[in-house]
Design a protein that fits this description.
Elements (H helix, E strand, L loop, with lengths): L5 H14 L9 E4 L2 E4 L5 H12 L7 H8 L1 H29 L4 H36 L15 H7 L3 H7 L3 H9 L7 H27 L20 H35 L10 H21 L3 H27 L7 H35 L1
Antiparallel strand pairs: 1-2
Helix pairs in contact: 2-8, 2-9, 3-4, 3-9, 4-9, 4-12, 5-10, 5-11, 5-12, 6-13, 7-12, 12-13
Length: 377
């Protein structure tokens, strides 16, 4: 039985209905002694933490192998360069979204390119996040020499091989599918750009430090998943203890990452399969079926895919580059709200050309390596 007059019950019921809308925060209200209070916006530090957690996932474990391939100096410069491109692409999305009062990436693609634009974005997000989930599952289950400053280039094939590091770097910064969720929680929308910059600066620092010291420690013995290197004797006192600390710390981190990326995966897959149905939060049966099915797919794929490098190679060169660079650039070129400057459009074209050329070469190089391995076998 309810307590209080009827109008109070109606108001509280209305509030509860409103907060379950897909554009509002997951925890939008709090109940205190004096009554029912609405959520008053996320903090700057909280938003930075959420975005940073989205960015720094299993991809960080493959970055040292990218540094091994590119060389120390070009590899670290590429980490910074991809971070700057990521900041530019997110800025494109946020500016267009604020102008059109858009609250999701899929909605923005739908406004710019219709139903097929939205479907392409949702399919890409599903593909990328499944790959991230596979990598996380695989990570949970596994004397310092002068590092190589520049890559070794012997022939043309070694040049093509360098491009295979690009998809891994691209995947490491993909967070675009969660930017709108974080932006929706902010009361002051002008904070979005500083939050993105702070988060990218923080994550880039973590990436540079991890890649540099891991490559310095393991050198040419750096594995595709650097966490696997911490199964061996490091040649230092208490090596086994240090190995355990590193692995447990990273396992704790990916336990925080997985729910965040899985939320985006489930939401986008539901929108892709059931675009006209009511929101998934209102349908417990659909919610349960999609959640269990995705977990089964992720765990099964993690068993059969040989390494996280292979997963990031293909995903980074296809779905990740679409989400991170090509789709935002396409939105700016279509310019549905008339806000793009000449500089924006030049940057958008440059971004598309770089993404298509570098990742096409990476796919070509990967395919050639597969054929060579088959010939040798």
């Amino acid at each position: 039985m309810g307590v209080g007059n009827g109008s109070a019950d109606v108001n509280q019921q209305t509030a509860r209905n409103e907060i379950r809308d897909e554009t509002t925060p997951l925890l939008p209200v709090k109940v205190e002694e004096e009554g029912f209070h609405e959520f008053n916006g996320a903090s700057f530090s909280g938003a930075v933490f959420n975005l940073s957690t989205t960015i720094v996932g299993a991809g960080i474990m493959a970055l040292p192998a990218s540094i091994k391939m590119l060389g120390l100096i070009p590899g670290l410069l590429m980490i910074i360069f991809v971070a700057l491109l990521t900041e530019a692409s997110i800025d494109m999305l946020i500016r267009c979204s604020h102008q059109g009062k858009i609250t999701s990436y899929g909605w923005l693609m739908g406004e710019a390119y219709g139903q097929w634009g939205r479907i392409a974005l949702q399919a890409s997000v599903v593909f990328v996040v499944i790959t991230a989930g596979i990598a996380i599952i695989k990570v949970i289950n596994g004397t310092v020499a002068m590092p190589k400053l520049f890559p070794e280039i012997d022939d043309l094939s070694s040049v093509w091989k360098l491009f295979t590091a690009v998809p891994v770097l691209v995947t490491a910064y993909i967070c675009h599918y969660n930017v709108h969720s974080i932006d929706n929680e902010l009361e002051d929308k002008t904070q979005t750009k500083p939050i993105v910059r702070t988060s990218l600066a923080l994550c880039s620092s973590v990436y540079i430090a991890t890649s540099f010291f891991a490559y310095l420690l393991f050198g040419d013995g750096t594995l595709d998943d650097v966490l696997a290197n911490f199964d061996s004797n490091l040649g230092i006192p208490f090596s086994s203890v240090f190995n355990d600390v590193v692995r447990v710390s990273y396992a704790a981190h990916v336990m925080l990452v997985f729910p965040i990326v899985f939320f985006a995966l489930r939401l986008n897959l539901d929108g892709l399969l059931f675009p006209t149905s009511r929101h998934i939060s209102y349908d417990n049966k659909r919610f349960t079926i999609i959640t269990i099915s995705l977990l089964v797919v992720i765990y099964t794929a993690a068993i059969f895919i040989p390494s996280i490098w292979d997963a990031f190679q293909f995903t980074g060169a296809t779905a990740a580059v679409l989400i991170g660079f090509i789709f935002p650039a396409m939105v700016i070129l279509r310019d549905p709200y008339g806000i793009a400057t000449k500089r924006d459009k030049i940057l958008a074209v440059t971004m598309i050309v770089l993404a298509v050329v570098s990742n096409s070469v990476a796919l070509y190089s990967d395919a050639m390596n597969i054929f060579r391995r088959k010939e040798v076998a």
